[in-house]
Write a structure and sequence with these properties.
It contains 3 helices and no strands. It is mainly α. Helix 1 runs antiparallel to helix 2 and helix 1 packs parallel to helix 3. It is elongated, with a radius of gyration of 17 Å. The protein starts with a helix and ends with a helix.
Length: 87
């Protein structure tokens, strides 16, 4: 446990940030899953709109360093490839 006032504050801040990151990461995964589900259902129009939303979420997560920028690029690339292959 922290002893100094600054360490106690840092603990409070890191806990709040951890919960925020957890929520954001969960919604990001849900958005990516929606794209996969739309492709699996064969609905290309829905897949495109869900991909645009997912792309925005991925970019925001990468800019806040929630995920690495290369991981964001890789994920977007794989989603585009999935949508194009479904055709």
């Amino acid at each position: 446990m922290p002893n100094t006032a600054s360490a106690k504050k840092r603990l409070r801040q890191s806990e709040a940030q951890r919960l925020l990151n957890r929520s954001t990461r969960s919604s990001l995964r849900s958005q990516i899953r929606r794209v996969h589900d739309a492709v699996k259902a064969g609905d290309s129009e829905t897949a495109q709109t869900e991909f645009r939303r997912a792309q925005k979420s991925i970019d925001q997560a990468a800019s806040r360093r929630l995920i690495h920028r290369n991981a964001a690029a890789r994920t977007k690339s794989r989603l585009v490839k999935l949508i194009k292959s479904a055709g």
